[in-house]
Structure to design on (401 residues):
């Protein structure tokens, strides 16, 4: 069975086509910088030459259309027709309390995902575009959805409730859901293998640091806390999102600047974070480049980003009463040696002995960047949300026959 996985992030769309029988990847690729001046398309057919293009791609529907063209292309393609794709698995960011597990797509499921648009305005609409575009391109092919929120459903009420009137939870389900769950789950399992210790006895802090960023406190393989909240806006500073701030700022700024609810929402989700502080870019590569060229605002944005992450690591070590390993993953966590260094060199109080040389090595392998003597291991583990989604999709589709 061939399963196509579509992971529509806020600024990127990643895809992988898996042959499930031997867990092989027939092709993978990504469309990055969707909606920016130029998007970057990378398509890697297994055993074939990598294909790159830079073109304007303004939204996710066009991105999927391009992916479909590439997968069936006479030169760059890996299947002769779309009928060689047996199932499609989608990443959906918000599943609310309704979805504790992955499900096959039907009208009810689509309705529920739409109902959650308000709570994940950058993500659920992108995922829905993906589902609709895939249905149009591959009619009759079963589709499954895998939710970012599902893994965090193990949190206790002490972590998922906000100290506000409890009627808000009862009436409107106002609570912490947490996101990037598929990634936090995957890297925590890989971390246990890399450390050679049972997951059941580990306390981990996993840092999924991409365009969206969150960390999670994981005890014995179960999420006990995570930095994103009811929506993916809370927690760490991100590319375009503010993360934590004093909630009183919202009504204050709305009054002073005469902003509507929609405008203030858009300000915090799309016009804050690295982009707002640096005035340069929401992309960490460009921030680091500008910082190294001496730009003060880029340096401030970088320092704030690292400082806020360091504070969460401290908070989660306290929350779990200890930590065995800190894991970095996603675009920035996997690739930015500068950011990892800025965070980890000041964790000596926790017992982290950072290995700056190991950290500086560019690699796509799972690796340790703390010294052998470090009391707390620091790991870099490339995430693989797509493989987890493919497995869930495969299992659901098997259940159909
Ligand atoms: N070599 C690199 N150095 C620093 N940052 C990088 C590098 N490669 C990618 N990134 C950063 O990773 C982020 C995107 O991460 P990603 O996980 O792909 O995001 P998302 O899935 O949320 O769209 C961007 O800020 C990008 O600059
Ligand atoms: C939930 C979330 O923020 O996702 P992403 O990192 O893909 O934007
Ligand atoms: Mg992502």
């Amino acid at each position: 069975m061939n399963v196509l996985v579509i992971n529509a992030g806020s600024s990127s769309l990643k895809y992988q086509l898996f042959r499930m029988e031997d867990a092989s990847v027939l092709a993978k690729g990504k469309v990055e910088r969707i909606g920016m001046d130029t998007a970057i398309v990378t398509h890697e057919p297994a055993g074939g030459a990598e294909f790159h293009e830079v073109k304007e791609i303004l939204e996710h529907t066009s991105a999927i259309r391009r992916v479909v063209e590439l997968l069936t292309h006479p030169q760059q393609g890996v299947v002769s027709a779309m009928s060689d794709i047996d199932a499609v698995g989608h990443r959906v960011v918000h599943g609310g309390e309704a979805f504790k597990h992955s499900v096959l797509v039907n009208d009810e499921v689509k309705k529920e995902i739409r109902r959650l648009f308000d709570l994940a305005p950058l993500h659920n609409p992108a995922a829905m575009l993906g589902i609709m575009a895939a249905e149009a391109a591959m009619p009759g092919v079963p589709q499954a959805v895998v939710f970012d929120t599902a893994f965090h459903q193990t949190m206790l009420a002490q972590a998922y409730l906000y100290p506000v009137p409890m009627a808000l939870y009862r009436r409107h389900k106002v609570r912490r859901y947490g996101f990037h769950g598929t990634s936090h789950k995957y890297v925590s399992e890989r971390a246990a293998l890399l450390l050679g210790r049972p997951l059941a006895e580990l306390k981990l802090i996993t840092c999924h640091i991409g365009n969206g960023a969150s960390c999670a406190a994981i005890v014995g393989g179960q999420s006990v806390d995570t930095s994103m909240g009811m929506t993916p806006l809370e927690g760490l500073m991100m590319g375009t999102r503010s993360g934590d701030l004093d909630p009183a700022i919202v009504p204050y700024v709305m009054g002073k600047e005469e902003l509507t609810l929609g405008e203030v929402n858009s300000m915090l989700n799309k016009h804050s974070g690295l982009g707002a502080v640096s005035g340069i870019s929401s992309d960490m590569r460009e921030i680091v480049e500008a910082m190294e060229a001496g730009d003060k605002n880029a340096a401030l944005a970088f320092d704030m980003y690292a400082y806020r992450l360091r504070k969460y690591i401290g908070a989660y070590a306290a929350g779990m009463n200890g930590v065995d390993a800190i894991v970095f993953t996603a675009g920035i966590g996997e690739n930015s040696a500068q950011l990892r260094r800025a965070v980890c060199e000041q964790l000596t109080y926790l017992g982290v002995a950072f290995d700056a040389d190991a950290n500086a090595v560019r690699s796509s392998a799972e690796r340790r960047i703390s010294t052998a003597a470090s009391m707390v291991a620091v790991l870099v583990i490339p995430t693989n949300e797509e493989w987890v989604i493919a497995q869930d999709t495969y299992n659901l589709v098997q259940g159909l026959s």
Notes: Residues 9, 210, 330 surround magnesium ion (ligand 3) (CB under 6 Å).
